[in-house]
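Work Package 3 (structural annotation) set out to generate three-dimensional models for the target panel prioritized at the project kickoff. During this period the team completed the workflow that converts sequence records into discrete structure tokens, so that structures can be stored uniformly alongside our sequence database. As a representative example, we reproduce one entry of 354 residues exactly as it appears in the project archive.
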Amino acid sequence: MKNQKIFNLLLIPVITIIILFSCRNDSDIHIKAPAEQILKSNSKVANLISKISMNDGSIDNIIDKLTCSTIKLPVTLIVNGSEEIINIPKDFRIIKHIFMEFDNDVDKLDIIFPITLISNDFSETIIENNNQLKELTKNCSNNDGSDDEDIECIDFQYPFSVSAFNFNNELIDTYILNSDKEFYQFIQSLDPKDIANIDFPITVVLSDGTEISIVDLEDLENNIEKAKNDCDENDLTEEYFTQVIINKTLKIQKYKDNQNNETNNYLDYIFDFSEDGTVITTNNSDSSITNGTWSISTKAEGGLDISLDFNNEEPLHKLNRKWNVKQIKNTRIMLEYSKEQGISKDELFFEQMR
């Protein structure tokens, strides 16, 4: 990231800062700027920006099964006995092709350690062995990611510049941002006292390729919210739901019975949904198999419901009900069930294992 310290305060025309150097204190600083131009830490628009620019952990779920981090490439894998080096994300298709070539009930993928994991906040952790990875997978699966997930329906077009007045060093810093990582780290670095400004106009790109010119922070917030809502609505179709779960191996990422997080009771189960309305559930701890059924329907008022039935098999019987489909991602479906007009709510998240 380029960092150029600018001493001429006129370089940010929307902010006038008068600093009295003699016996200066906070009351000596007067700031005048349109509210729609000031970017503050922990504001709604700053949080939305963070959700767009954070590292998307789902892109390599075929390898690490983690939605909260990605593996730093290159990485060496043993895929159904074949050694493969994955250098770029496009190489993930090599794994898929090998899985398709083998008529196995369970495909096998081993990671050659050590590896480096990049978290949603772009911090890096070295993983030395499979036990460490499993522990991280467990912790990631138990996270309540419904409120802080990345927003995938809109992206920033780089580069563009941002500026911030730092009260600690009394300097205005300007930055040229070239990536999501740089924008995310800029937002996270803002102090509550800092005054930041984006050099508008900037361009955002929707998932269908549409480009939108953004003129100020209010315009940015409105477009992010609209894109997020439109994407969620477009995803809630029977066709897309079926595409996500059919012929995939899924696990339960989270099961929350009202306020009780019971995800640990389901970590050993994998689910295989078939187009004929059946679902086969395998318990990896004892290799037992449970046959169930599922069906999807569109509600009259819009949205989807999915019905699950595993008979009286414990603990799967707790999933027997008609769930509202809250959201669908490329590798994950999020379901919820309100018992009494939203007073008590259960949550069930399925995630693809490969």
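Confidence is low (pLDDT under 50) at residues 1-32, 142-148.
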